[in-house]
Amino acid sequence: MKLPAGRQEGVVIDPKKEDVIQYLKVFRGAIEITTIRGKGFILIRDGELIAAFFEDKESVYRADAAVRYIMDNPANDGDSHHQQHFVMRSYNEEEYAESLKICTQGRLLMESLPMEKSTPPLSHKSQEHSLDHTSPRVDESILNKLMCQPGVIAVSAFYEGFPVLSLGEADFEHVAARAEDFVRTGTKIAQDMNLGQPGQLILETEENKFIIVPWGDLFLCIITRADAQLGLMRVLIRSIQNMVNREN
Length: 248
Description:
CATH superfamily of the largest domain: Dynein light chain 2a, cytoplasmic
Strand content: 25-35%
Oligomer: single chain
Order of helices and strands: EHEEEEHEHHEEHEEEH
Helix content: 25-40%
Number of helices: 6
CATH class of the largest domain: Alpha Beta
Number of strands: 11
Structural class: alpha+beta
CATH architecture of the largest domain: 2-Layer Sandwich
Strand order of the largest sheet: 1-6-2-3-4-5
Distance between the termini: 40 Å
Shape: elongated
């Protein structure tokens, strides 16, 4: 299983050193692990284990089982030639999203992974703006579920024309502003025609689909390829909306 190359930050022999631990608290990327027994990796974001994989000559280990195997089988055994080598590869937001998608499809996500991230790290592709107390907590796992669907290019939660949290490849400031215009225009047309509140807005072109749905006090904007299956997307979107309704 292969993740994006990212940017190599160095090779670590002992990850338990204090300076390495402090660095991992702000690290986003993969740690490639090579031992005499096999190879694998751990996906990390801000000190949190997100996914893991390890393969030796006898078996393949995924998620929590991979971490337990790595921790329970130190490779140095007093022999410096057999030490574990940890190659640090940092990711930008797009590389991290791609890695997360690969790990999700490979069933590598940690079972203990928290479902909510209310304060994700800021970057040019993942941005958070102040919301009032009535807005739902921004749940990055929801966007990850959408990003993992076939054909999905980008996902963004936005509020009054500002991106709150975004994954994928897009100019999210521009997307959120245009999506807000789309919502207001679509709502006005629906009201003028006595059709009620729009439950979903879809703009289709020859190359893409642009889907906007309400999510509590926020809206979710999903950009897909033209061949993305709307039926499957609608089922997932409805389940996401129902989760918010149950919480409220």
